[in-house]
Amino acid sequence: MSKPFIAKVPYEASHPTGLAVYCSDGRFTNAVEELARHLGHERIDTLTIPGGPGLLNRWSADYLESDMITRAANFLIRGHHIQEVFLLAHAGCGYYQTRHGALGAEFVAEQQLKDLQAAAEELRKTHPGLTVHTYFVRPQGTKITFEPLS
Questions:
Q1: What is the percent of the chain where pLDDT is above 90?
Q2: Torsions phi, psi for 92 (to 5 deg)
Q3: Cα separation, 82 vs 74, whole angstroms
Q4: InterPro entries attached here (predicted)?
Q5: pTM of the predicted model over 0.90
């Protein structure tokens, strides 16, 4: 039997006040956490699933997917007293490629932006006073760029 691993990062009992909702593609995890720190959040709650915040758009996602992620986001926002949410979609997302790839790259990108906007509107409507940020994330060589959307 092997020994347990003990993290060097200390446990903090208080919940973070920021929540990042993004695709589960691990190529972006460290960069999302870096963005959060840049924006003043040393720790964040995360909700990651293929397709990320696109699943919050009940009009384009499958009902069961949308219902699950919407309930999870609402739980975290209310239960952890989240004040800021970061919704992030990324270029080359496999979820969107599988779902919409036959319609072309331009359609996929447009759908991701529509889904981000719809998700942000839904969260703002459901949680008045919540600050919601939207970003489109692009790898550029070995760098990752976060493009804020208005």
A1: 94
A2: 75, 25
A3: 10
A4: Pro_CA_2
A5: yes
